[in-house]
Amino acid sequence: MLENYNLLLLSSGITFLLGALFPLMFKRSPISLPMMQISFGIMLGYWWTSLLFLRPLDDGLIIEKLTEILVLISLVSAGIKIDTPWSWQLWRPTARLLLITMPVCIFAMAVLGYYTFSLTVGAAVLLGAILAPTDPVLAASVQVGPPNTGGEDTTRLTLTSEAGLNDGLAFPFVYLAIKIAEAHSEGNRFTGELLWSWFTHDVLWQIGAGVIVGVVVGKLLAQVVFSKRGADSTISQGYMVIALTLITYGAAEYIQSYGFIAVFVAAFVFRRSEFDHDYHKKLHNFAEQSEGLMMSFMIVTLGILLGQELRIGIEIPWQVYMVSFIFLLLIRPIGGLIALSGLDMQRTEKYAVSALGIRGIGTLYYLSYALNQGYFNDEDATKLWIVASIIILVSIFVHGISAPWLLNMTPDKSDK
Q1: Helix, strand, or coil here: 357?
Q2: CATH number of the domain encompassing residue 139
Q3: Spatial contact of 363 and 139, defined as CB atoms under 8 Å apart
Q4: pLDDT confidence of 151, banded at 50, 70, 90?
Q5: Cα–Cα distance measured from residue 79 to residue 269, given in angstroms and rounded to the nearest whole number
C-alpha cells in the first residue's frame, strides 16, 4: 500500500473534495453523496490495478475497528440532535420497530441465508443479525435536523431513534450466531442451557447495563459541562464529543454490556440537560463533521473492495441480487407495516418509515466483529461478505433515490 501512498493521498483528496462540493454540484439531482462516493470507489478499485488494499478475510480487525469508531460517532450525533423528549406515546413507533420488525427481519434473512446460500445455521443467523439494524451513518439524510431546529415529524424521529437503538440491540443476535457457530465448531449441539445463558447474559444483562451506563455517564458529563464554571461553553466541543463517546463506550464494554446502546443513551440524556443551550448544536456540528469525513472514507473503501472483486472476476450469483431486493423492498417494508399497524400515523408516514430501512456501515462492523472470533469457516465468511456488500450497495442506490420522494409524501413539520 505504501508504494501507492501519494496516489492514495490524491484519491483521498478527490473524495473529500466531492463531499465538499456535493451540495453545489448535485443540489437538484436524485444522486446522493454515498451513491457518488461508492461509485468513485468502485472505479478506483476496478481500474487501479496496482492498488493493494484491504482484504475482508485477511484484514478483518482493521475493518472492525474503523467501522466501530464511525458507528460510535454517528450514535453520538443521533442522540444529541433529537429534540423530542422521551415518552411512550411519541416513541411507541420506535419500540414497535425494535420489538417486531427487527426480529422479523432477522428470522426472514436467516431462513433465506440457510436455504438460498446453503449457509450453516450459525452463519445464517449471523446474516440476519448483521442486516437487521438500520444504519445510523448512511441514514443521516433521513433523520431529524440539528438540535433546537424545531418541529420534528414522526417519520424522521422514528428513523433517527430506531437507527440509534437497534445498532446495539442487534448485538444479542450476533452473539447468538457466534455461540451457535462455536458449539458447531467444537462438535457440540446448541443446548437449552446455552440458550438460557445467552438470554440472561447477552440479552437481559448487557442491554440493561448498557442503558444504565448511558444514563449515568450522560448525566455526570452534563453536570460538568453545564455547571456554573462551564456554563459559558468554553469547554471544547471536540474534546467533549470524544470524551462522551469513549468514556461511555469504554465503561459499558468494561462491565460487559453493550457500548453502542450506552453511547446513544448517554448522548440523548446529555441533550436533555440544559435542553435549549447552544452548546448542543456546537457539539452536534463537530460530531456531524467527523462522521461525514469518516463515512466518506469508509464508503469509498467499500467501493474499492467491490471494484477489486469485479476486476478479478469473483462470481456473484443472481440469487444475491434477488435476495437483496426481496429484503429491502419486501421483508423490511412488510415487517415495518406490521409493526406500525394500529398506530395513530398517516399511511404515508408508515410506509416511509417501513421502506427507509437503510443498511450500511453498521453491517460491516457486525460482520467483521463476528468473523474475527474465529468460529466461521472461510466459505461461509466469503458468502457473508458478498451478500452483505451487495445489499449495502443496493441500499445506497435504492434508498438514496427513493428517500426524498418518500419523505415528501409525509406530512410537513408545520402541520404537526
Answers
A1: coil
A2: 1.20.1530.20
A3: no
A4: low
A5: 8
